[in-house]
Amino acid sequence: MNSEQLWGTRFKTYQKKVMKYAKYMMNDHFMIVVFFLFGFLLFQYSTWLKTIRILEWPLILLISLLLAIVPLFGEIATYVEEADLHFLSVIGEDFKPYFKRAIRYSWIFPLVMNFIATIFVLPIFMQAYGNGMIPFIAILVTLLSLKGFHFMIQKSIFEGKLPRNSFYNVALYLVNSICLFGILSFIPKVFSLSMAQVLAVLAIGLYRFASAKTVNFDWNEMIQKEQVRQQRIFRVIALFVDVPFLKKHQAKRNQSLDIFVGKLTPNRIHPYRYLLVRTALRSSNYVTVFLQMIVVTVLLSFISSIWYWIMAIQSMMMLVICFQFASLYKHPKAHSIYIHSLYEPKEMMDDFIGVVLQLVIGASIMISLLTALVSRNPFVLVGLLWYPVLSTVFLYGYLKPRLNRKKKRR
């Protein structure tokens, strides 16, 4: 078996692993929710499109900033493993066919994403200018060229031609925004196509220039990036079903969050409650998900300008946030097993529900204030009262009985 065939074998193994659990995520209830949410978004989008008459630079800038994120989605899927550091690293040039096939396959997801993004923003330019062919070609070519830059940098890092730097994505986002704003500003003129062609030629030229240099694969970087990429996919699936391949994050102290630990656990006679709060605030996955859900909820709120639709969307997202913290109930066992012998299950459950409720109420306050500040709609402040009530009913009326039933079945 050569290296190219090895990549194909690993790809099939990984696909079977993912599809085994992804099928539980794509159930009937999930698809119904996605279908209705997608229909609602399309309706609101079409209603907003009718208000566009002239494309002014603030709207073009906003579109550019949003589209600049799209080329950053998708990474090179190498499927390398930790053992490859010892077994594949010695084959040298024979690893190149494996790596080239990985790059070719990795283009599939960006092609789909960039095409969908182009189709999504195309009606804006058609509504303003009436011509859709020039905007379609200009936007799609630009996005694919910018994705080429992203892959070129990642490929160069894997091949040991560029040092690792966490600021590459920030720099790429700024470059993407500038290029998109410049090209979109000239639509529907033919000059925008010329600019997109120049960008494509530049991307191909730089890619060939970088490929001509000597290769010295950075195996540690490839293995680390591949593990992070796969864990990101497993984490999404884990929102719907237990995934054994998901690695647990270690809890690390973040001194900037210590003040919240004291506020959430004022009573020191509840060590388990303190353990829950400490785990939530010191585990990067919980803090990241908490902040991401707040940002996503606020962004989704701008789908509609009607206050009760905003509250309906945010109410659903509040329930999702409650679900996100359901795994917190089992997480502390990995840190302190003996503490579970000191408390009754009912008392532990009450502490868990209380901590989650405090976190969700904190999120609801931030979401309501941010939405009211940006939308300038005072009616959304009703959420300051409604979301805590909704979360309390959901946690005590649904999540708590469900977790208790699961414990009894075990």
Automatic annotation (TrEMBL):
Gene Ontology cellular component annotations, sorted alphabetically: membrane
For this protein, the record's InterPro entries field holds: EcsB_ABC
Give the residue spans that cross the bilayer.
Answer: 21-45, 57-80, 105-126, 132-153, 165-184, 190-210, 283-303, 309-331, 352-373, 379-399
Coiled coil regions in record = none
Q: Does the keyword Mitochondrion apply?
A: no
The alphabetical list of record keywords is:
Membrane, Transmembrane, Transmembrane helix
Protein name listed in UniProt = ABC transporter permease
Which organism was this protein described from? Answer: Granulicatella elegans ATCC 700633
